[in-house]
Structures are given as C-alpha cells and as structure tokens.
Amino acid sequence: MINLREALKVYFIMGTANCMKDPIEVLKEAIAGGITFFQFREKGKEALIGEEKYALAKKLQSQCKEHRIPFIVNDDIELAIRLNADGVHIGQEDEPAETVRRQIGDSKILGVSVHTPEEAEGALSAGADYFGIGPVFPTKTKADAKPSRGTALIEELRSQGIAVPIVGIGGITSENAATVVEAGADGVSVITAISLADSPLLAAKALRKSVGERGNHE
Ligand code: TZP
Predict the structure, then answer these.
(1) How far apart are CA 118 and CA 133, in angstroms?
(2) pLDDT per residue as tens digits for the range 24-82
(3) Predicted interface score ipTM higher than 0.90
(4) Which of 10, 13, 83, 130 has the highest CB neighbour number within 10 Å of its CB?
(5) What is the rounded distance in angstroms from the CA atom of residue 169 to the CA atom of residue 183?
(6) Which is the catalytic residue, given 28, 43, 142, 149?
(7) What atom in ligand 1 is closest to the CA of residue 91?
(8) pLDDT digit string (tens) for 84-107?
C-alpha cells in the first residue's frame, strides 16, 4: 500500500489539450523531474475519445508503472476499470462519489474535488481517499473553474481536525506552492506549470523543491 500523503506531494495532471508537444515526452520529463502522482485528464473540444483515448492512456500508464508513480483517471470510470488504473478523480458535477466508490471497489484510490465544508463531509462519507481543493489561485486552464479562493477552505478543514490527504489546485507554480502546503495541504496539483513549461523536468524539480518536506499533516 502506498503512503498517499507522501505520494500526493507533486501531483501532475495532463491531457493532450494541455501540451504543446507529445504528451508522452512531457510525462517522461515530468517523471524525471520528480513528480509523485499522475492524473490523465483528457478534456476539451479536441479531446481524444474511444480507442485513441485508451491507447494514449495505456502509454502514459506504462510510463507511470515503470517509475512507480500512481496513475489516476479523471472522471472516466469505465476507462479506469479497463486499464486497472490505480484510481479515479471526480468533480462534484460527475457521478456521485458513493456510486463511483461502489464501481471501483475499495482497493482503488478515489479523489474528489470539493469547494465547501459540506462537499468535503459528503465526499468523506462516500469514501474519498483525498480531496482536491481549488482553484487556490486564478487559472486559465479550466474554463468553468469557480473563482479562486486562496487557501481558506484548506485551513478551515484542517482547523476542524479533518486529516484526510489534501492537494491544492489552480494556478500553482513553484513560486507559490509553499504557501499551499503551509496552509495545510499535503501537496500541490498542477497542469500548466509543468505541461507548458519549456522544461517540464526543471518545472517538476522546482515544484518538488518548493513543497519540500513541509507536507505532513497526519
Ligand atoms: N480544477 C480546478 S483549477 C483546475 C482544475 C482542473 C485547473 C488547474 O490548472 P493549472 O494550469 O495548474 O492552473
């Protein structure tokens, strides 16, 4: 069993829409730079579907496997099951977390995006293993993202004694990542800070350094 809190430190999320070059190359560089967790998030108007989506996912998963990086699928439960992925990440607008937990079983990781203490409570009782909280900072990557709210919810949940692993998301870079961890998150999840960096390797390395040893809220 992996130590999820540790594994969530530098959580890279990516799909074809987020890359200017071959996504496999981007992931390889990100892994070489030290990412600790990966989510395949194939969204947007030119997103791959069907067998093309499966084929890309399979290649990305095999890179992750080779380097023992957990491989999570965004939203597509069927794909996650077909690939025997390590887990699934869902938002509030996707299938209810209880349903997804039932579909994937207890051995896979379930991540849920939450925006309020009520959503956090619901996700916990549905069996979420970690929360994604954001947007912490303004982001252009998710068109329908809610307004950024800083680290307020992360701090609120920690002050209530909620110990579930948390990652911040939205507009996070190596310059601001430390503040997210200092607020109580175990790690940071990023898309463009790595996927659009001139060097995804150096970007991942810088994030790893910023998160450092601070993420530990057991
Ligand atoms: N959910 C909230 S913000 C966001 C998602 C998927 C996008 C994060 O992308 P970036 O490029 O790291 O700001």
Answers:
(1) 13
(2) 999 999 999 999 999 999 999 889 999 999 999 999 999 999 999 999 999 999 999 99
(3) yes
(4) 10
(5) 13
(6) 142
(7) 1
(8) 999 999 999 999 999 999 999 999
Residues 6 or more apart whose Cβ sits within 8 Å of residue 138? 148, 170, 171
203 CB burial (10 A radius; 0-12, 13-18, 19+): buried
CB-count exposure of residue 32 (10 Å: 0-12, 13-18, 19+): middle
Residue whose Cα lies nearest atom 8 of ligand 1: it is 170
Tell me if residue 9 is catalytic: no
The number of the ligand 1 atom at minimal distance from the alpha carbon of 137 is 13
Q: Can you tell me the distance from the alpha carbon of 195 to that of 155, in angstroms, rounded to the nearest whole number? A: 28
For 142-181, the pLDDT digits (tens) are 988 989 999 999 999 999 999 999 999 999 999 999 999 9
Residue 142 among the catalytic residues: yes
Query: Can you read off the two tokens belonging to residue 174?
Result: 């190596």
Q: What is the DSSP string of 50-76?
A: HHHHHHHHHHHHHHHHHTT--EEEES-
175's CB contacts (< 8 A; 6+ apart) are 210
CA–CA dist 88, 77 (Å, integer): 7
113 catalytic residue (yes or no) = yes
pLDDT at 214 over 60: no
User: What is the distance between the alpha carbons of residues 21 and 5, in angstroms, rounded to a whole number?
Assistant: 31
Count Cβ atoms below 10 Å from residue 22 Cβ, excluding itself: 11
